[in-house]
Amino acid sequence: MKKLSQLTLSFFIVLNIVAVLILILTAYSPYLNPDFFPISSNLGLGFPIVLFVNILFILFWLIFKYKGMKYSVIGLLIIAPQIFKYTPYNIQRKPPQEAIKIISYNVMSFNGFKKEADGKNNILEYLKKSNADIICMQEYNVSKNKKQVTQQDVEKALSRYPYHNIQAVGDRGSGNKLAIYSKYPISNIVKIDYKSAYNGSIAYTVNIDGNKTLIINNHFESNKITMEDKVVYERILKMEDKTQIVKDTKGLVSKIVEASSIRQKQAKKVDNVVKISKLPFIIVCGDFNDSPLCYTNRLLEETLDNAFVKSGKGLGISYNQNKFYFRIDNILISRNLKAYNCMVDKSIKDSDHYPIWCYIARK
């Protein structure tokens, strides 16, 4: 075993302890309200990086001083539940025959209404072949130009879904819509009341084989990251100009902090609807625009189970653009339901999101 001087060892021990404390803070940052802890509550975004640093410390101590690894090992034990929440590993199980399949998909206006050379749209073809029972879509928009995806194209492709509802959301009439297509009857459609320029949540009562189920389709506040911001983010990752990096980072952090505060208020509105609902079964899904370790998710998961955490495997990254690689799309279910084989499907890349789907059955 190689030896280090006592001074060097002490230096690395201090660094290791600091790294462990930061790891614990990032792991449990979802318990911090963004209104009171605007920056600390968003530290979960850096969780994988801080986790990796602590794993490096374990390897370091294995090489130089075995006993020193106890600091990171203790840290990992403390935050173990959060590791599983961030990257679960569940054995895939065959769903029961009565299970339904639900898909949540931010379709990005069907990839800008794009039709391929054969006149078909890849996202519509994917949904058509998915054999899902219920499809919830965000950023649902169609064109009136027949050379692009129209409402008639959607209804033709999804003709096996006799029940559907399309609602505009947002206060500014942006045209951003949420849609549900279902093989089961839909009733009692309610727009959840919260202020947002371009986002919203819609609650539906869906009668699934006699079981009335509350389904809430969501598109929570985005971080309003522009194309310029995405270039800035890539520049930060490359660490090219340290002076400029500080300035760039402040700008991005400011946007993330503001959006996080708005999202938690939106999530509280949805959480209130869930808590007062008298329906026996509840499914909440959509584009949450936040990482797995965030206040929004934790708030909703006080009442509901995360289908991916309970039955999925891996990171489940659902946003796929500009190195913002996070699982921001979710399916949550009431605790009298069981999820099977939840997955983020990377077989289609025509939107900036991947679809997330799972099978759901009564316990």
Summary?
The protein is α+β, with helices and mostly antiparallel strands and about 375 residues long. It has helices spanning about 5-25, 45-65, 70-80, 80-85, 110-115, 120-130, 150-155, 225-240, 240-275, 295-300, 305-310; strands at about 100-105, 135-140, 165-170, 175-180, 185-190, 200-210, 210-220, 280-285, 305, 330-335, 335-345, 355-360.
Model description:
There is one protein chain. Helix content is 37%, strand content 21%. The chain has two domains: 81 residues, no CATH class; 251 residues, Deoxyribonuclease I, Chain A (4-Layer Sandwich). The strands form two sheets. It has a six-stranded mixed beta sheet. The mean pLDDT is 91. It is of the alpha+beta class. It contains eleven helices and twelve strands. It starts with 5 loop residues before the first helix and ends with a strand. Strand 5 and strand 6 form a beta hairpin.
